[in-house]
Write a structure and sequence with these properties.
Blueprint: E1 2-6, H1 12-23, E2 26-29, H2 30-36, H3 49-56, E3 64-67, H4 71-74, E4 82-87, H5 90-99, H6 104-116, H7 118-127, E5 132-136, H8 142-154, H9 172-179
Parallel strand pairs: 1-3, 1-4, 2-3, 4-5
Helix pairs in contact: 1-8, 5-6
Protein backbone atom coordinates (compact mmCIF):
# COMPACT_ATOMS: atom_id res chain seq x y z
CA UNK A 1 0.00 0.00 0.00
CA UNK A 2 1.09 3.54 -0.78
CA UNK A 3 0.19 6.24 1.72
CA UNK A 4 -0.22 9.90 0.83
CA UNK A 5 -0.53 12.43 3.62
CA UNK A 6 0.00 16.11 4.31
CA UNK A 7 -1.53 19.16 5.92
CA UNK A 8 -5.03 20.03 4.63
CA UNK A 9 -4.72 21.96 1.36
CA UNK A 10 -1.49 20.37 0.12
CA UNK A 11 -3.21 18.40 -2.66
CA UNK A 12 -4.03 14.93 -1.34
CA UNK A 13 -7.56 14.72 -2.81
CA UNK A 14 -6.37 15.97 -6.20
CA UNK A 15 -3.17 13.95 -6.47
CA UNK A 16 -4.09 10.59 -4.88
CA UNK A 17 -6.69 9.59 -7.53
CA UNK A 18 -4.23 10.39 -10.34
CA UNK A 19 -1.53 8.32 -8.65
CA UNK A 20 -3.95 5.43 -8.02
CA UNK A 21 -5.09 5.48 -11.65
CA UNK A 22 -1.51 5.48 -12.97
CA UNK A 23 -0.51 2.64 -10.62
CA UNK A 24 -3.78 0.75 -11.31
CA UNK A 25 -4.62 0.70 -7.63
CA UNK A 26 -7.69 1.49 -5.56
CA UNK A 27 -7.87 5.00 -4.10
CA UNK A 28 -9.13 5.23 -0.52
CA UNK A 29 -9.76 8.42 1.45
CA UNK A 30 -9.33 8.13 5.21
CA UNK A 31 -11.93 10.86 5.72
CA UNK A 32 -14.45 8.91 3.62
CA UNK A 33 -13.64 5.70 5.49
CA UNK A 34 -14.15 7.50 8.82
CA UNK A 35 -17.40 9.07 7.61
CA UNK A 36 -18.77 5.77 6.26
CA UNK A 37 -18.01 4.07 9.57
CA UNK A 38 -19.69 6.80 11.62
CA UNK A 39 -16.43 7.97 13.17
CA UNK A 40 -16.54 11.60 11.99
CA UNK A 41 -18.37 14.25 13.97
CA UNK A 42 -21.03 15.97 11.87
CA UNK A 43 -20.47 19.28 13.65
CA UNK A 44 -16.69 19.59 13.83
CA UNK A 45 -15.48 17.01 11.31
CA UNK A 46 -13.24 15.57 14.04
CA UNK A 47 -12.40 11.88 13.72
CA UNK A 48 -12.01 9.35 16.51
CA UNK A 49 -8.52 8.27 15.42
CA UNK A 50 -8.17 5.46 17.96
CA UNK A 51 -11.40 3.86 16.82
CA UNK A 52 -10.57 4.36 13.13
CA UNK A 53 -7.15 2.78 13.65
CA UNK A 54 -8.78 -0.20 15.37
CA UNK A 55 -11.39 -0.62 12.62
CA UNK A 56 -8.85 -0.35 9.82
CA UNK A 57 -6.57 -3.00 11.30
CA UNK A 58 -6.41 -5.78 8.71
CA UNK A 59 -9.10 -4.06 6.60
CA UNK A 60 -6.91 -2.11 4.16
CA UNK A 61 -6.13 -3.66 0.77
CA UNK A 62 -2.47 -4.01 -0.15
CA UNK A 63 -3.11 -2.75 -3.69
CA UNK A 64 -4.33 0.71 -2.72
CA UNK A 65 -3.36 4.34 -2.44
CA UNK A 66 -4.65 5.52 0.94
CA UNK A 67 -4.71 9.26 1.54
CA UNK A 68 -5.49 11.67 4.33
CA UNK A 69 -3.88 13.93 6.88
CA UNK A 70 -4.66 11.32 9.55
CA UNK A 71 -2.52 8.63 7.90
CA UNK A 72 0.34 8.72 10.47
CA UNK A 73 -2.18 8.38 13.30
CA UNK A 74 -4.36 5.55 11.97
CA UNK A 75 -2.40 3.41 9.48
CA UNK A 76 0.37 1.25 10.99
CA UNK A 77 3.82 1.11 9.43
CA UNK A 78 3.39 -2.59 8.68
CA UNK A 79 0.51 -1.75 6.31
CA UNK A 80 2.43 0.60 3.99
CA UNK A 81 5.36 0.10 1.68
CA UNK A 82 5.97 3.84 1.11
CA UNK A 83 4.51 7.12 2.34
CA UNK A 84 4.62 10.44 0.54
CA UNK A 85 4.03 13.64 2.50
CA UNK A 86 2.72 16.44 0.31
CA UNK A 87 4.10 19.83 1.38
CA UNK A 88 3.15 23.37 0.35
CA UNK A 89 4.89 26.66 1.10
CA UNK A 90 2.89 28.17 4.01
CA UNK A 91 2.06 31.47 2.25
CA UNK A 92 0.68 29.59 -0.76
CA UNK A 93 -1.18 27.19 1.56
CA UNK A 94 -2.75 30.15 3.36
CA UNK A 95 -4.16 31.38 0.03
CA UNK A 96 -5.41 27.89 -0.95
CA UNK A 97 -7.26 27.56 2.35
CA UNK A 98 -8.68 31.09 2.09
CA UNK A 99 -10.03 30.29 -1.38
CA UNK A 100 -11.63 27.12 0.02
CA UNK A 101 -13.51 29.25 2.53
CA UNK A 102 -11.71 28.04 5.65
CA UNK A 103 -12.31 30.17 8.73
CA UNK A 104 -9.61 32.35 10.26
CA UNK A 105 -8.74 29.93 13.07
CA UNK A 106 -8.54 26.89 10.76
CA UNK A 107 -6.29 28.76 8.33
CA UNK A 108 -3.89 29.77 11.11
CA UNK A 109 -3.86 26.25 12.62
CA UNK A 110 -3.10 24.58 9.29
CA UNK A 111 -0.53 27.17 8.17
CA UNK A 112 1.27 26.84 11.52
CA UNK A 113 1.18 23.04 11.22
CA UNK A 114 2.67 23.18 7.71
CA UNK A 115 5.27 25.78 8.72
CA UNK A 116 6.70 23.53 11.43
CA UNK A 117 6.01 20.27 9.57
CA UNK A 118 3.66 18.57 12.03
CA UNK A 119 2.24 15.95 9.62
CA UNK A 120 5.64 15.40 8.02
CA UNK A 121 7.34 14.90 11.37
CA UNK A 122 4.62 12.50 12.50
CA UNK A 123 4.91 10.55 9.23
CA UNK A 124 8.68 10.22 9.61
CA UNK A 125 8.18 9.15 13.25
CA UNK A 126 5.50 6.59 12.30
CA UNK A 127 7.06 5.15 9.13
CA UNK A 128 10.77 5.96 9.33
CA UNK A 129 13.17 7.50 6.83
CA UNK A 130 13.33 4.33 4.72
CA UNK A 131 9.61 4.54 3.85
CA UNK A 132 8.91 8.29 3.87
CA UNK A 133 9.43 11.01 1.24
CA UNK A 134 8.27 14.60 0.85
CA UNK A 135 7.00 16.25 -2.35
CA UNK A 136 6.62 20.03 -2.69
CA UNK A 137 3.26 20.79 -4.35
CA UNK A 138 3.52 24.58 -4.10
CA UNK A 139 4.01 25.26 -7.81
CA UNK A 140 3.34 21.81 -9.26
CA UNK A 141 0.13 20.93 -11.05
CA UNK A 142 -1.66 17.87 -9.65
CA UNK A 143 -0.47 15.88 -12.68
CA UNK A 144 3.16 16.93 -12.19
CA UNK A 145 3.05 16.22 -8.46
CA UNK A 146 1.44 12.84 -9.21
CA UNK A 147 4.37 12.06 -11.54
CA UNK A 148 6.77 12.63 -8.67
CA UNK A 149 4.71 10.43 -6.34
CA UNK A 150 4.50 7.65 -8.94
CA UNK A 151 8.26 7.85 -9.43
CA UNK A 152 8.75 7.38 -5.69
CA UNK A 153 6.25 4.51 -5.62
CA UNK A 154 7.78 2.49 -8.46
CA UNK A 155 11.47 3.12 -7.91
CA UNK A 156 13.94 2.95 -5.09
CA UNK A 157 14.71 6.66 -4.80
CA UNK A 158 17.63 7.78 -2.74
CA UNK A 159 16.88 9.35 0.61
CA UNK A 160 15.01 12.60 0.06
CA UNK A 161 15.87 15.89 1.65
CA UNK A 162 13.51 17.19 4.30
CA UNK A 163 11.63 20.39 3.53
CA UNK A 164 12.08 23.14 6.13
CA UNK A 165 9.80 26.16 5.62
CA UNK A 166 11.00 27.83 8.83
CA UNK A 167 14.12 29.00 7.01
CA UNK A 168 11.91 31.22 4.82
CA UNK A 169 10.22 32.83 7.85
CA UNK A 170 13.28 33.93 9.77
CA UNK A 171 11.91 37.15 11.25
CA UNK A 172 9.03 38.16 13.48
CA UNK A 173 7.67 40.43 10.75
CA UNK A 174 7.51 37.59 8.21
CA UNK A 175 5.84 35.28 10.74
CA UNK A 176 3.33 37.94 11.77
CA UNK A 177 2.41 38.57 8.14
CA UNK A 178 2.08 34.82 7.46
CA UNK A 179 -0.10 34.17 10.49
CA UNK A 180 -2.30 37.23 10.17
CA UNK A 181 -5.67 36.75 8.50
CA UNK A 182 -8.10 39.09 6.86
CA UNK A 183 -11.80 38.30 6.84
Amino acid sequence: MLGITGTPGTGKKSIAPIVADRLRMKCLSLNELARSRGLMSRNSGAVDTQELRARLRGDLPKNAVVHGHLLPYVVPSSAVSKVVVLRCEPGALKERLRLRGYGRQKIVENVEAELIGVVSSDAFDSYGRAKTWEVDTTRASPADAANLVVEIAVSKPREARRIDWTLDYDSGAKLKLLLSTVE
